Amino acid sequence: MNNSTKTIVSLLLTIVCLSSFSQESSKTNAELKVFSNFRKWGFSITPTIYAKGKTTKNYGTTNLNTKSMYSFQAGVERYFWNTKKWSANVGLKIGLAPFSNHYFHLKSEDTPSDFSNYDGSSDVGFSQPYIIVPINIEYKKKIADKKYFNLNLGVNINVGISSRDDSVTRFISELPNDVTEIREIFAYYLLTPEGAQYSATFSTGVYFVLKKCLVKTNILYNKNFKNLWEGEYQFGNLFVSEPTRGDYTVSGDYIGLSTTIFFKKRTKNKKRKIK
Q: Could you tell me if residue 208 is inside a domain?
């Protein structure tokens, strides 16, 4: 992690700490008193769309086209001072880091006759699951009956994506040459940068106060401080066209739609004694 990244992370963590100490010690905002009826632990699910991989062709004529990648996160979040306008929250989530979503077209003379004009495409390729630790500060304001606007700013600590020297992620496209032989025509060779990854997050949305739960729906944007995947792609073993090789990177930036549910606290029923 470079010096600028360390500065950004330190600044955001400092803001979180300062916001916690700036809360009023005894007075609870009347508009937000309803939040005390719900648990401070929430369960969240977040479908995400990652930015497409970037390609830089070094040589060759075959083109690799990339598309946005879909993924998913789920976990728990713990909220502090949730009855205040300014609050904080931390969490623990599991995510999946996608590395590819692509398509390419091969010339008919590059493939066997029964595979003329071959079109190659892939579903999103996933690496191993990874752990996300989000740390956020939040601003809340009532905007309508049982509806509250929220704005979140923070950092994510992403653990478990880092690679060793021997952990290469490969994706292979193959064509049958005859009954006994398979030719490898396309592959990725990808690594992740060393160490944990950090990202900045921004989200905004609305709390909905329901009868049995509190629901928070937010649109979020995540900006990685370093690339999620780095490596190269290759085309080869084609009948006519020369081999193609290029650099390939996935930034790890994404947008998402998160839903977090906080269940209502149980109220103890007091039984009257009959004299």
A: yes
Q: How much helix, strand and coil, in percent to the nearest 5, is found in the chain? A: 10, 55, 30
Give how far Cα 204 sits from Cα of 25, 46, 92, 137, 261, Å.
26, 14, 19, 12, 16
Domain coverage including residue 180: 3-263
Residue of 262, 201, 250 lying closest to 96 (CA atoms): 250
What is the DSSP code (8-state) at residue 117? T
Distance CA 105, CA 108 (A): 9
**Tens digit of each residue's pLDDT (9 = 90 or more) over 121-158:** 655 566 678 899 999 999 999 999 999 999 999 999 99
- Residue pair 53/67 in contact (Cβ under 8 Å)? The answer is no
Give per-residue pLDDT as tens, 152-205: 999 999 987 755 444 445 555 666 655 456 777 888 888 877 777 899 999 999
3-state DSSP call for residue 254? strand
User: What backbone phi and psi angles, to 5 degrees, belong to 179?
Assistant: -65, -30
Query: Does residue 132 contact residue 91 with C-beta atoms inside 8 Å?
Result: yes
Domain count across the chain: 1
- How would you list the strands of the sheet with 54-59, edge to edge? 54-59, 244-250, 229-235, 182-191, 169-176
- For residue 196, CA distances in Å to 12, 26, 95, 156, 205 come to 17, 39, 14, 10, 29
We report the CATH number of the domain holding residue 161 as 2.40.160.20
Q: Classify residue 83: in a domain, yes or no.
A: yes
Confirm whether 122 is domain-assigned: yes
Query: What pTM value is reported for the model?
Result: 0.80
